[in-house]
C-alpha cells in the first residue's frame, strides 16, 4: 500500500471539501431539524461526478479509483453525514453492483442514468424480520414464466422515496435457502409498488428512509441480476464494498467533530486559559487524533485492496467496525469538550453524535462485522 496520495487524489479531495463547505454547510442544521432531503445538493454532486465515481466513463461514471471515492465521502461526511450516505449507497450498493454483475443491456438501461446522477438508487435487503439475519428473506419473487411476481416488505431503505431504481433481494425458492435468493432491478411507479411513510430518525435526518411494500409487482425476467440463485452472493459482495463507503462516512463524521473540538478548545477560556491548555482536554484531543489516524489507515487499506482487486471482506469489515466506533467515541468527546454549547444545534457536534450512531448499525452492525472478520481468521 502506497501512503502517498496522487495529484489527482488531492484534487478530488479538495473538490469535495470545497463543495461541502460552500454548498452543504450552510443548510445542514436546517435540513437536520426538518428532515429535509438535500435535493439541490444531490444534483450538484451529480454534476461533480460524485454519484458514479468508480463507474467506467462508458457507462456514465467518473472512472476513478476507490481511494478517490473514500477521500470524497470523508470530506462530505465531515460536514453533512446525510449527503455522504446518499452518495455512498448510490456508488457502492447500487452502481458498483450493477457495473460488476449486470449484462450490457441492464447497464445501458439502468447504470448509465444512475452513474450520471440523473436518478438515484436504493438497495433493498433489510426486512422487518431480516436485518442482520439476511438469509431469512420473507419477500418472495415467484417465477411466472416471462416475469416474477414480487411480494413482501423491505425496511429502513436509504433513498427510499428519492430513488427511481431499486435493487430488491427476494427469495425465489425457499427450499434452497440462501441459494434460492435472487436480486432484481425494480422501477419506481410499477403497479403494486408502494412507499411507506418517512422514518423519524435519531440522525442522518437529511437522508430519506422508508419501508417499501411490494404487492404482486410484475418484474420482467430480464431484470434479474445474474444467474438464478445468485442474489445472496450478490448482496454480500456489494455489501463488502459498501462497508468501505460507510467506514469513510464514519471517518468523516469523526474528523469533522474533532476539527470543531480542536478549534473550540483553542478559543474557549476557563480558569484563566484556553481549555486546550488544560491537560484533561488536550489528552482527549490526543486520543481522538490518534484514533482518527488509525481509522483513516484502515479505510485507505481497504480502498487500496479493492483497487488491487483483492478480497475485501476482512479489510472492509475491519475499517467499518473500527471507524464507526471512532465516530461514536470522538463525537461524544467533542460534545463534552464543547460543554453546554455542545448540547445545542448551532455548534454541530450534537448532530454529529446522533449521526455517528447509525454507522455502527447499517450495512451490517458492529456485531455482524465481528462475525465477518472472525470467519476470515480461520480457513
Ligand atoms: N462476503 C462474501 N460472501 C459472504 C460474506 C461476505 N462478507 N458473508 C457470507 N458470505 C457467503 C458465505 O460464504 C456463504 O456462501 P456459500 O454458501 O456459497 O459458502 C453465504 O454467504 C451464506 O453465509 P453464511 O452461511 O455465513 O450465512 P449466515 O446466515 O451464517 O451469515 C451474514 C451471513 C454474514 C451474517 C450475513 O447475513 C450478513 O452479512 N448480514 C448482515 C446484512 C447487512 O449488512 N445488512 C445491511 C442492510 S443494507 C443497508 O444497510 C443499506 C442501507 O440502506 C444503508
TrEMBL record:
The keyword Flavoprotein applies. The keyword Metal-binding does not apply. Its cofactor is FAD. This is Cyclohex-1-ene-1-carbonyl-CoA dehydrogenase. It comes from Flavobacterium muglaense. Residues 122-217 form the Acyl-CoA oxidase/dehydrogenase middle domain. Pfam families: Acyl-CoA_dh_1 (PF00441), Acyl-CoA_dh_M (PF02770), Acyl-CoA_dh_N (PF02771). One of its GO terms (molecular function) is acyl-CoA dehydrogenase activity. Keywords: FAD, Flavoprotein, Oxidoreductase. SUPFAM superfamilies: Acyl-CoA dehydrogenase C-terminal domain-like (SSF47203), Acyl-CoA dehydrogenase NM domain-like (SSF56645). PROSITE patterns: ACYL_COA_DH_1, ACYL_COA_DH_2. Residues 231-377 form the Acyl-CoA dehydrogenase/oxidase C-terminal domain. Belongs to the acyl-CoA dehydrogenase family. Its EC number is 1.3.8.10. Residues 6-118 form the Acyl-CoA dehydrogenase/oxidase N-terminal domain.
Amino acid at each position: 500500500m502506497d501512503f502517498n496520495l496522487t495529484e489527482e487524489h488531492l484534487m478530488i479531495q479538495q473538490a469535495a471539501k470545497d463543495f461541502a463547505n460552500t454548498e452543504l454547510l450552510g443548510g445542514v442544521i436546517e435540513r437536520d431539524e426538518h428532515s429535509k432531503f438535500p435535493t439541490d445538493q444531490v444534483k450538484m454532486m451529480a454534476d461533480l461526478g460524485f454519484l458514479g465515481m468508480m463507474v467506467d466513463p462508458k457507462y456514465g461514471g467518473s472512472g476513478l479509483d476507490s481511494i478517490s471515492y473514500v477521500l470524497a465521502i470523508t470530506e462530505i461526511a465531515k460536514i453533512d453525514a446525510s449527503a455522504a450516505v446518499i452518495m455512498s449507497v448510490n456508488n457502492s450498493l447500487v452502481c458498483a453492483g450493477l457495473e460488476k454483475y449486470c449484462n450490457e443491456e441492464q447497464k445501458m438501461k439502468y447504470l448509465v442514468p444512475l452513474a450520471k446522477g440523473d436518478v438515484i438508487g436504493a438497495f433493498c435487503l433489510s426486512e422487518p424480520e431480516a436485518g442482520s439475519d439476511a438469509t431469512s428473506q420473507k419477500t418472495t419473487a415467484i417465477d411466472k414464466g416471462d416475469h416474477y411476481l414480487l411480494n413482501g416488505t423491505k425496511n429502513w431503505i436509504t433513498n427510499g422515496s428519492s430513488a427511481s431504481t431499486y435493487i430488491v433481494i427476494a427469495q425465489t425458492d425457499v427450499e434452497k435457502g440462501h441459494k434460492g435468493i435472487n436480486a432484481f432491478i425494480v422501477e419506481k411507479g410499477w403497479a403494486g409498488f408502494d412507499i411507506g411513510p418517512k422514518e423519524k430518525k435519531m440522525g442522518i435526518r437529511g437522508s430519506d428512509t422508508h419501508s417499501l411494500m411490494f404487492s404482486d409487482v410484475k418484474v420482467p425476467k430480464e431484470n434479474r441480476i445474474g444467474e438464478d440463485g445468485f442474489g445472496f452472493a450478490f448482496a454480500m459482495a456489494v455489501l463488502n464494498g459498501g462497508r468501505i463507503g460507510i467506514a469513510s462516512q464514519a471517518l468523516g463524521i469523526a474528523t469533522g467533530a474533532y476539527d470543531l473540538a480542536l478549534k473550540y478548545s483553542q478559543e474557549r477560556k476557563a480558569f484563566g486559559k484556553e481549555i486546550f491548555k488544560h491537560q484533561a482536554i488536550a489528552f482527549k484531543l490526543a486520543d481522538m487524533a490518534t484514533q482518527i489516524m488509525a481509522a483513516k489507515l484502515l479505510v485507505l487499506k481497504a480502498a487500496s485492496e479493492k483497487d488491487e482487486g483483492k478480497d475485501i471482506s476482512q479489510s472492509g469489515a475491519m475499517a467499518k467496525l473500527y471507524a464507526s466506533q471512532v465516530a461514536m467515541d470522538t463525537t461524544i468527546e467533542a460534545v463534552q469538550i464543547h460543554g453546554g454549547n455542545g448540547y445545542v444545534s448551532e455548534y454541530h457536534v450534537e448532530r454529529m453524535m446522533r449521526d455517528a450512531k447509525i454507522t455502527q448499525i447499517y450495512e451490517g452492525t458492529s456485531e455482524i462485522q465481528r462475525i465477518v472478520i472472525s470467519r476470515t481468521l480461520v480457513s
